[in-house]
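Here's what a typical entry looks like (2'-5' RNA ligase superfamily protein):
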Amino acid sequence: MPHMTVGYFDNEEKFKIAINDTKNIVDSFKTTVNEISVEIIDTNADSIIELNIPLK
């Protein structure tokens, strides 16, 4: 399932390293999005679906 992960960084330096490491990625894909899910990963790395938003 195509998805976009928005990561968590506990400090600005790690964030800057991640931006630098990924700035040249040029991958792309096409898909039709029917629903957006907001997922929370808890401290045990368990996935919790917080919200599903159907798109029309």
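The chain has a mean pLDDT of 87.

More examples are in the samples folder.
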